[in-house]
Design brief:
By secondary structure, the chain is an alpha+beta fold. The chain has 14 helices and 29 strands. It has 3 domains: 145 residues, no CATH class; 143 residues, Rieske Iron-sulfur Protein, CATH 2.102.10; 151 residues, no CATH class.
């Protein structure tokens, strides 16, 4: 970390000294010493007058650890973080070090690098934090040398906003259903109900905030929504270490998935797994527990939970809370917004899936298959489960700020339960299923309720885009495909 405090003149002197003590004839094909590599990273990003000499030193040493550095510099040049150097210098150097020819195509470089086993120079995390702190000083507090990490820091990407640039809703104001006149019956909401406390979080609002720290039924909840990977996951903020965590959006992405951070330690967390990935909590065994959440329409949620409350449109933020406004163009297309290197063509890139993780076994259920069959009996590991999707998908007709009118699939109403020895099939209404003997079971948020109060408890899962789930669970099972 001491390198962060050196002056530009000190860096210049060190760079000159480095060039003196590392003649080309003596270091060709050899990696640079760790301390020299640290110095060169800062020279490359901070001292444009020394760039060409520093580049030659890296090339002479053929130090492929600097592939990560020049990939970062290409992006930094594109977004204006480094000036005074022609981008061709970075590109040419990267192509010589890597043997690849992707030019100024940063996404192609990212996807190629992700598939390699290359490593970065020591001190890369702190240097990357130093560079990105030019966007927001808070980035430097996340990316610091010595911070324990479970992920490859080279793959962390800036998502286009600063820390909390997508502001979380903290203990948001709720209003009775009858007063929510701004909502249309068919528009999507995330629904939660714990201990009789039912709450709805409309997507037209959550698209702009992606995080709600709330208390539902006395349980501290963080509803973490990654718009890019299509996953809204409800986490119990009470961790096994006795600490209750609340979360914000870091402004960073990892494989097109948002990295959230806790306000208590400023550790970065993977939104899709509920595990800390960079920061002090990585050294612990802390992991968040999933809570039940469902995506459905406002009309259906209100029928299911007449006493529900819902987010007030007056959030305290000035946003155009119109369905599809921020991301409707993205939701209605098959493209991804950021590069993701770990992909699989078994399903379309942005096919909606329902994801379960049982006994350490990840499994993806294509939403099209679920809504077609309505009730699916399955076994994951040794655990018999049943998935209920009796209402089809939720379609949004919205207006996007960039392209105008858009129509897209927002997901569908899916719940999963422990079925024990029972086999279920659709009932006469969407709120019921029948067991093997034809007895009626009611579909509720906590369990399937059968005859004489018999219960099949909920198994908590969530929706996601296929690419988002696969990028973290490449060994996932896929219903109907494996």
């Amino acid at each position: 970390m001491r390198h962060l405090h050196k002056s530009k003149s000190t860096y210049a002197a060190l760079a000159v000294l480095l060039l003196t003590i590392l003649p080309a004839s003596s270091v060709r094909g050899a990696s640079l010493k760790d301390e020299d590599a640290r110095t060169l990273m800062y020279t490359l990003s901070d001292l444009s007058s020394q760039t060409h000499e520093a580049v030659q030193t890296v090339l002479t040493a053929n130090d492929t650890r600097f592939v990560a550095v020049f990939l970062e510099l290409i992006r930094a040049n594109q977004i204006g973080l480094v000036r005074g150097v022609d981008s061709k210098v970075y590109i040419d150097t990267l192509e010589k070090l890597s043997g690849k020819m992707f030019g100024n195509d940063w996404p192609a470089w990212v996807e190629w690098y992700g598939s390699t086993s290359l490593t970065s120079p020591p001190g890369f995390t702190g240097w990357k934090g130093h560079l990105l702190a030019r966007i927001d000083p808070g980035f430097g507090k996340f990316l610091r040398d010595g911070a324990p990490s479970r992920i490859r820091v080279e793959e962390i990407q800036w998502g286009g906003v600063g820390v909390d640039g997508i502001p979380a809703l903290d203990n948001p104001r709720m209003i009775p259903a009858a007063k929510a006149t701004y909502l249309e019956p068919k528009e999507p909401v995330f629904g939660m109900s714990i201990k009789g406390d039912s709450r709805a979080y409309p997507l037209r609002i959550m698209d702009w905030h992606e995080m709600a720290n709330d208390v539902v039924g006395g349980v501290p909840v963080s509803l973490a929504y990654c718009t890019l990977c299509g996953a809204a996951i409800a986490y119990d903020g009470r961790a096994a270490n006795g600490v209750t965590y609340t979360f914000g959006s870091s402004g960073f992405l990892f494989r097109s998935n948002k990295l959230m951070y806790d306000r208590q330690t400023r550790t970065l967390w993977n939104q899709l797994t509920g595990k800390p990935v960079l920061g002090d909590l990585v050294a612990t065994k802390v992991q968040l527990r999933l809570l039940p959440v469902v995506l459905t329409t406002w009309e259906v949620w209100r029928q299911q939970h007449p006493d529900t409350v819902v987010l007030d449109l007056n959030t305290g933020y000035d946003r155009p809370y119109v369905p599809g406004a921020p991301y409707g163009d993205y939701f209605s297309a098959q493209r991804t917004m950021f590069p993701v290197w770990q992909r699989n063509s078994l399903l379309p890139t942005k096919a909606r899936i329902y994801a379960l993780h049982v006994e350490g076994v990840p499994k993806a259920y294509p939403l099209t298959a679920l809504t077609q069959k309505k009730v699916v009996n399955d076994t994951i590991g040794q655990t018999p489960v049943v998935l209920v999707a009796t209402r089809g998908t939720v379609t949004v007709d919205g207006t996007n700020r960039r392209v105008g009118r858009v129509t897209y699939d927002a997901g569908g109403e899916v719940r999963a339960y422990h079925r024990g020895a029972e086999l279920f099939r659709p009932g006469s209404t969407p709120q019921t299923v029948l067991d093997t003997d034809g007895r009626v079971w009611r579909v509720t948020e906590e369990a399937l309720i059968g005859p004489s109060g018999k219960m099949a408890r909920r198994v908590n899962g969530h929706l996601a885009y296929w690419f988002g789930w696969y990028s973290f669970f490449p060994h996932t099972l896929v219903y109907g495909k494996s």
